[in-house]
Write a structure and sequence with these properties.
- It contains ten helices and no strands.
- With 210 residues, it is mostly helical.
- It is elongated and about 65 Å long.
- The relative contact order is 0.15.
C-alpha cells in the first residue's frame, strides 16, 4: 500500500479542521457560496412539495437563505440528531408558512382558499419533507453529488476508491481491499475519513478548531 505524503496529510488536516459551517459563520464568502450551492436544490424541492408555485420558488429561496445568513451563528449541534439540514428545514417551513399567510391575507387574491389549504399542509407534521418523497431523495442526491465533487480532490486515488467501493457500491471491505492491495482495516479507515469530511461539508459536524 502506498502511504500518503506528509504534505498531503497536513493539507487534508488543515482543510477539514473546521466545518463548512464554521467557515460560513466567519463570513467566508466562498464557504457561503458553497453552502447555498449545496442546499438550494433541496430547499427548492421542499418548497415544491409544500405546493409552492414554481414562479414563487426563487423568491422563497432568497428569503430562506437570507434568514440562514442572519441566524447562522445561532446554529449549534448540541445533540447527535441535530443537523444543519434539520435546522434549514425549520427555516424553510417557517418561510413557506409566511408565504401562504401573506396570500391568505389578501382578500382579492386568486387562489386564497388554495393558499389556506397549502398552509394547512405545511402545518401538518405528516407532510414533513424529512419523511422523504421521491423528489426529496433526488434533491438530496444532488446535494451529496455536489458535496462529493467538492471534496474529491482532497484525497489520494486509493483512499477515494476504497471509500467509493465500500460506501457507495456497498461492497465488502475485504473485497475492496483485495482489489486495491490494501488491508481491510485501511479500507475502513479510508471510508471513515471521507465520510467524516463529507459530513463536515454538509454541515453535520461542527467544531471550534481554527
Amino acid at each position: 500500500m502506498t502511504g500518503e505524503s506528509n504534505d498531503h496529510r497536513v493539507a487534508w488536516d488543515r482543510s477539514t479542521s473546521r466545518s463548512l459551517l464554521a467557515h460560513a459563520q466567519q463570513d467566508d464568502a466562498s464557504a457561503w457560496t458553497r453552502l447555498v450551492g449545496l442546499y438550494a436544490p433541496l430547499v427548492a424541492a421542499w418548497c415544491r412539495r409544500w405546493g409552492v408555485a414554481e414562479q414563487d420558488v426563487l423568491d422563497l429561496l432568497q428569503e430562506v437563505f437570507a434568514a440562514v445568513s442572519k441566524n447562522l451563528n445561532h446554529f449549534r449541534k448540541e445533540q447527535p440528531h441535530d443537523t444543519f439540514r434539520g435546522w434549514l428545514l425549520t427555516i424553510a417551513r417557517n418561510k413557506v408558512r409566511d408565504h401562504y399567510r401573506r396570500r391568505t391575507g389578501q382578500p382579492a387574491a386568486i387562489g386564497g382558499t388554495e393558499a389556506s389549504l397549502r398552509m394547512a399542509q405545511v402545518l401538518d407534521p405528516h407532510s414533513e419533507p424529512a419523511a422523504s418523497s421521491a423528489d426529496d431523495e433526488i434533491a438530496f442526491g444532488e446535494v451529496l453529488r455536489r458535496a462529493l465533487e467538492s471534496i474529491r480532490g482532497e484525497f489520494q486515488e486509493h483512499t477515494w476508491q476504497a471509500f467509493w467501493g465500500v460506501a457507495v457500491e456497498g461492497r465488502a471491505a475485504t473485497d475492496v481491499a483485495a482489489d486495491l492491495a490494501m488491508q481491510p482495516g485501511a479500507v475502513r479507515v479510508a471510508k471513515s475519513r471521507v465520510l467524516l469530511r463529507l459530513r463536515r461539508e454538509l454541515g453535520d459536524v461542527q467544531n471550534h478548531e481554527s
